[in-house]
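Q: I have 196 residues here and want to know how they pack in 3D. Can you give me a structure?
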Amino acid sequence: LLALELPELPARAREETCERVLRLLRPYLFQPGPLLAFFHKSLGLSVRRRQLGAPQERRRTHGRIAAFFAEQPDASPEGVPNERKAFELPWQLLCAARASEPGAQEWSRLARILTDIRFLESKCRARLLPDLQEDYRAALVHWPGHLNYDPLEPSCAGAPPRTIGASDALRVEAFAAFVSTHAHWLAACPDETIPL
């Protein structure tokens, strides 16, 4: 995030500044998995409050992180999928969209990535199919004006799925249905997503 806040500096100077800050923060960080976390909960809350306090700040910060991941390649030159991009990009876009107004461009950006066949293939090749299904579920649950249809829910019995004025949500819903219907094939043959 610090690297995103220093765009006017040359790349080498940005890298050196980030390294210095990371060195200073190292005693307050730990690594429970592939990512760093704050050792003290209060430090994490303070950073979150500063970076994600008001809706405008949340929208801006998540939007900048999403832009960072959007610029990353889907795979390495050797063809290894970029798991971090596949995991983070839809989440950051959803967080930016939720902090914005209904109908804002963030919702369209989220729809574009969730209905991009190259992204779908990248996510499947990274073996993140359950995460992809969760991306669709989370997006549709939070989509302004979208009414989720659950045939097992008594209040939905006999009612068709509805979306009020949101063609992007309908496209996302169609892709979600496609992924759900073909999950067995996408999991077994992630390299063959495009022919479907």
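Q: Anything worth noting?
A: The first strand starts at residue 29 and ends at 30. The radius of gyration is 19 Å.
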